[in-house]
Records
---
Amino acid sequence: MKNQYVFKWLFVTLFLTMATLKMSAQKGSISGNIVDGNNFYLPGANVVIPSLKKGSITDFDGKFSILSIPTGNYKLEISFLGYEDIMQEVEVLENETTTLTIKMKQKSLLLNEVVVVSYGLSGQAKALNTQKNNINITNVVSTDQIGKFPDANIGDAVKRISGVTMQVDQGEARNIIVRGLSPQLNSVTLNGSRIPSAEGDNRNVQMDLIPSDMIQTIELTKAVTPDMDADALGGSVNLVTATAPQKFRLSSTLGSGISFITNKRILNGSLLVGDRTKDKKFGWMVAASINDTDFGSDNVEATWSDEFEYYTGIDDTNGDPILDDVAVNPYTNSFEIRKYLVQRVRRSFSANLDYQINPNHNIYFKSMYNWRDDRENRYRVKYEMQDAEDIEMGDFTITNGVPSRFPAKVSRETKGGIDNNRNKSRRLEDQRMQNYSLGGKHFFGKLKADWMVSYAKASEERKNERYAKYKTKFSVVNDFSDAEFPLMYAEFATDESDFENFEFDEITEQYQYTEEEDVNFFTHFELPLNLFDNKNGKIKFGARGRFKNKSRNNNFLEYNLESVYSTMNLTGLKDFSKDDFLAGNQYQLGSFIDANWLGSLNLVNGESVPSEFLRANFDVTENVWAGYVMTTQNITENFQTLVGVRLETTSLEATGNKIENEEDLVGTITEKNNYTNVLPGVHFRYTPNKNTVLRFAWTNTLARPNYVDLIPTIDVVSGDEEIFVGNPNLKPTTSMNFDILGEYYFKNVGILSGGVFYKEIDNFVYQFQSEINSDFYGQGTTGYRVYQPLNGEKANILGAEFSFQRQLDFLPSFAKNLSIYVNYTFLTSKAEGIRNEEGEERQDLDLPNTAPNMLNASLGYADKVFNARFSTNFSDAYIDEIGGNAFEDRYYDQQLFLDFNFGVVLSKKLRLFGELKNITNQPLRYFQSVRSRTQQAEYYGQRLTFGLKYDIY
């Protein structure tokens, strides 16, 4: 079936190509590059032959092409926001392609007889021109704009875009949420090729893996067109790397800094070198980047309960303890204090080549290799209420309806790794992402064709990850005076440091490896097609194949060293108590096993613990074939439309483990699933005047379920009376999307825009929790709690977006160099078909990961020598994980980040820069049910970096 689709596309392509070659007599073409005064490419420039009403928009490499032009002499008109218009004479010869390189000059504005020059706006001009001239709804950020913000990785840069918020990991933006839709519902591509995910259980692309200085342009598409992958429910982020310049260019940075939570250094550097041969045919560019940061976090975590039981002292006739319950208010029954120490080394390498065979044929190669090492130590003390049968009358105290004293199980745990040159006694998480693409762009008379094949791989490996845990029991005080900052501590202070009573629990070592490989290809073909009197219409069609394999292979070993290190005092200890714990001075860590001691242990003859890895291991193969056809037409001179349809067919094969009692492997289960989606789309673009654009879009998109949800695993955990079941028959989540947007572009390079959007979503995926009323999963499983991903019914999202950015050049004196950048997004959502643990449908529930309010704002200043910017990023609280009932729901709390950066021009080639991040010490925070009930609060402190940037161009 799939091969039939391919043959049909190839037949159509061949037929149209031959027909085109016959019809192209007495016509020629024009192609070329548009650059600025420094020979940097200008994407989004409008290139038009007014007499023919034919034109083109430059791509991200500043290239344009106009095909099928009758022979003769013409005037070419080039316009670019913020630059002076150009009229260029050109001669078109029969069956030849005339090539041009056109240099544009930045415009100066005359306000009240004063010439106003805009400094530092070239990047903004490039982004806004591309955004303005796209027929669909996009947001574009250029490399110059990225440099205006203190963003070390691409995730921190993306969060500046309207409608985007990011989930944070260790203080850096990692997972992207677009228009309130969770990370796995959005796609991320590199030069148009999908980036695989190194995450083991989902499709999330780690945005903190890619340094921001390796990317030339970020394009966020909020309304996809049929020639794009459809699995972008919220949006599609395309990261575009730099291409070979028009002439020699060298750019380098060298910097340092300090992370205040550890008072340790930061090192970073980058180098970009590129050039083109004298005949301009062959271009090359190589780039490298490194960032080495020693930082950490201070963390507290808690779980909440609204039930309390204790042992009455009486047993039933079977000898089982009889329990009684006490009506209580919500309280913390488990509490943790954690300290993380992390060294993150991020390296990136890129090499891009292109060769212009002749004016009609160009081939290119693009590559990127990202490699990140995360070395981490974690020190954790945990207080957990003992089981009800171990709590007797007199063991506990209830104060104002809250258990304020009770017996607890207490443990102290150290996470580390082996002592070698790679791990350095820390847990080493080795993440890598590599992408290699080969493509070409070709003209055959009227036919424009481009193609690309790519190979991409992402992996995450954790070798020799070690844990050492010791445990004891004592009575604790549960301090509930401030629910936002929960606290537990020993009723008798000496219990905390009586390490002779902390007994050996476990020393373990684990291995984890996750890998995803993607092979992609696509072909696009474009022909002139005018259905209306206005020219410049076209039809575009093509095909794509994406072949993915994802697997995870984990192992876990336990070592019994109780005879040698029976109590904690016999190990190597280190005291981590201090008065500047970022979550509050009331939290004192105390002493833990030293990570260096743990790393030095010679662990041999470990016992495998299948319960720790059997459910995690899987293998998934997913193949996607797609084809599309679309046409772009100018209904009038100012009214443009794009209409098309995309067909995607998906085949899936997933293998997981069938497990009993967590550790008994019964066998493997393999399931297959196939589905096809037909996805039409319509876009309208209306320009009532040169500076105003009105847009409307109706699109259909999808999102495939997370891998971990698709695995046909069955894991019966008798000890906990729990059953975990996969669901390979999950349907993809689909969405019908409507967008309306109005944009006004200021002459001095700025924008005012506003719009609304609506998404009607079917078959979203959520984690269902229920209690089984039969022995369906084996004898004695009646009453067990079952966890299984299911498709919900419907959800909808209604949102509004507003954006404003411009230089305040109407102000007097130095104030004319100020600029404002602000965007705001409002969302409201509703999800239907989500059932609670009783099987009843829950009402008035938001779709998970939909933040109702998101705001980005910055105030900047730029003149010839100095520039500075304060920037802030806010996202509102939203439901992150649906529990068995409303009390168990988990929420991701609101975030407010404030950053500052500056630059000083020391010479034409040399610039000083500095930046201060997270001025507000914003924590990562989760809460349970209501904001006052903290589940997790993790603080990162501030980071200061500074350095020099050197450019030759």
---
Amino acid sequence: MPLLEPNPRALRTGTKRTPAPDRVPDLQSGGTPRLMREELVALLGREKVLSTISDLVRYASDASPYRFVPQVVVVAEDIDDISALLSYAHGKGREVVFRAAGTSLNGQAQGEDILVDVRRHWAGVEVLDGGARARIRPGTTVARANAALARHGRILGPDPASAVACTIGGVVANNASGMTAGTTRNSYRTVASLTFVLPSGTVVDTGHPAADEELARAEPRLCAGLMELKAEIEADPELVARIRAKYAIKNTNGYRLDAFLDGDTPARILRGLMVGSEGTFGFISEVVFDTLPLERQVSTALLFFPSLPAAAAAVPRFNEAGAIAVELMDGNTLRASVNVPGVPADWAELPKETAALLVEFRAADSASQEAYERAAATVLEGLELVAPVASVDNAFTRDPGTITGYWKARKAFVTAVGGSRPSGTTLITEDFAVPPDRLSDACADLLELQARHGFEAAVAGHAAHGNLHFLLAFDAADPRDVARYAAFMDEFCKLTVERFDGSLKAEHATGRNITPFLELEWGTKATELMWRTKEVIDPDGVLAPRIVLDRDPQAHLRGLKTIPKVEAIADPCIECGFCEPTCPSQDLTTTPRQRIVLRREMMRQSDGSAVEASLLESYGYDAVDTCAGDSTCKLACPVGIDTGALMRGFRHQRHSPREERIAALAARNFRAVEASARLAVAVADRIGDRALGTVTGAARRAVRPDLVPEWLPEIPAAAPRRLPRTHRPAAVAVYYPACVNRIFGAPEGVRGPSLPDAMVALSGRAGRPVWIPGDVAGTCCATIWHSKGYERGNEVMANRIVEAAWGWTAGGRLPLVVDASSCTLGIAHDVVPYLTDDNRELHAELTVVDSLVWAADELLPRLDVRRTVGSAVVHPTCSMRHLGDEEQLTALARACAEEVVVPADAGCCAFAGDRGMLHPELTDSATAREASEVTARPFDLHLSANRMCEIGMERATGRSYRSVLLALEHATRPA
């Protein structure tokens, strides 16, 4: 054991707890039963079987109000794994549930036996026929698929609000639709063909010309059963009419019985049935979509009404005018969304009764757009709108920024409202549809029902299609509150069905929480047909039992999860999973959501339980050490939860007083530390990579991997000893070379000036000279200490750099230009909480400018580009995302290259200062997809704007990354 390994118990919650009723029992503290684990390891390989209690708990939660702990988690890599697993399940009497993004809202991504992760190895998009179709793997997010299609002017039909996180497999398996899909653009209508694995292991490609012939040969009983059901349905005109009527509005409750009417062969019937089957009929391994035109001419308005029924009453008018989207938001939703970046602060003052419609028209050309705007203006003339706060203008706009802000507010409905719920309560998202012309009545009845049962109203939805969502928050640990929820659901379901003949699930699918009410909506005959369909396709009940179909009238009350209070920064989390696609460690250890889920399970446990001990033992590496600390999760989270900050706090919590003192001492003596680091890099260049790798490897084993960096061959030579000479009197800005650029030089084999030399030359060339202070050595942005949770060292350096910058910039009169994006972020934002009151006032006077912004805004317009290369690929860093500098990076790259590519899978490289040296496996995992995209073709330049990120990308790709400023200097250098 390493000498300085932290004590796992340092992360104990430290609060008195009452064990929760749904806590994991101590009997499960050992994880997967030994025999089961050994059998699956022998079948699939050790790396595909996740079996610790930490693994099981982190997969036990999704975006729904339910929680079921699986016996084992299998990370399937290909169809062979799926087939082998299904064969195992049949032989052992086991049950299998598939899970991709875990964004489903009704528990359909949870299982109590074998849970299969089909996200990690299942991403990929192949654009076909110039974009008219796309072949997409199930682990691909909707946003990633649309990014690939946008280059061809196409888009997918389904557009769920969770598009940044939800995956294609889940979208098809739930027939999720979204803002504009309605009943005509959803998966059922736009899927051209599917490839799937049946419960028996048979693989079916419905797009293959011989699909039915091969299916009949492999599954004769199944084919006969499907055709018998088809004949029975078609022989009943009343049933046929009922089925057609049910799908005249949005409906995802139960199985798609219209597949028997729309398909004329077993393969075609299965294609329809698989859509919306929620993983109960098979595993969808590939989807071919018919895509739709991407109409880029957009006009949008956010219109405010005095009440929810008044807003709903206006919906048919905009439908008639041709609006592609009419979204409804009530007052509580609008007020809660003030937490979303870009939403006007005065929305917090909106009256509770206020409601709004987000109306959008999309057109292929300007003439069509103007026609839509004239029609919209006519509708507006007949409406009684209100403007309760100053930011409301009730007008249509074409401004992309404004439109994006409106949609961010709308799409944050579940997360923003859910994030503001009372602490300790469970959130349920209900989803129903009524005929659009009955929407106003449905809104009024819903508000009355919620008030009568004591639930605070929060309503939003796709009003154009009569589809509403509403939220309920209650304490799942309190039987009385559960009974209140149950009573509400009984009355709500009867109201929806009996008064409006509506759908109890319009787009979120049946899952677990509407199974008891399926027969209420569909009637006995149709419901029994669904049971018989399940028996034909999955006679042994291997796949997802108790999802979609369940005879238990209390099924929706089983497995409700408690939400124990955790650290304040993470407590609002509703476990939606929006953070996961951005997380660098998502394919290595845990995600932000899972870090919080694990923490909540610790809070459910009694103090000192065996489960708590096991979780703490794993949490150090799985959650704390392998968090890059980049906080991109905060940007993805609609309520701004910064799990990176939580992990930095845990790092601090694990530090001994002695470690804190040493870190503070290093900050006080950073001039000597900096000089020593540069000398060590210079000496290392002479010693060689192999010897240094051996030495650091031994030190890491003896001390602790999280304290001793591993020497990597990609680490460059030392920077020049002296910075370029500059003159203060003529300077228009102060240039601060970051310590990383004072220590590390250019990549091996790259000739030309150092980054500081290039920055000074570019600024002078543009007539905007800069000055480098003579005493920058020994100063730092404080990120070194901030990222590791060393608070005392952070305080020392944060105050030092602000005091120094104040003097350098003549009290803030000159801007401070910083040449590393992470250091810009550190000085501009991250140091603030650690400053004294006096220094906080000084900081407020500083103008901190990233070198990308300086070069793009101040230098490039004044420079002559004299030479360019053919192509460049850029790596936007996570700090650029926080600063909003990504566009400046691409603008500078375009000045240097004819073609500039931003990889669709670009993300945080997780090098994170030195974390990529402490845990190289983190960077390897984080960069894998981006590296695959980059290395698929040659580029003349590989550009970024942070030295350590450039090292990380060089390690990932084998390509030499450099600062875009070096490329710009070369492109504009006089002949």
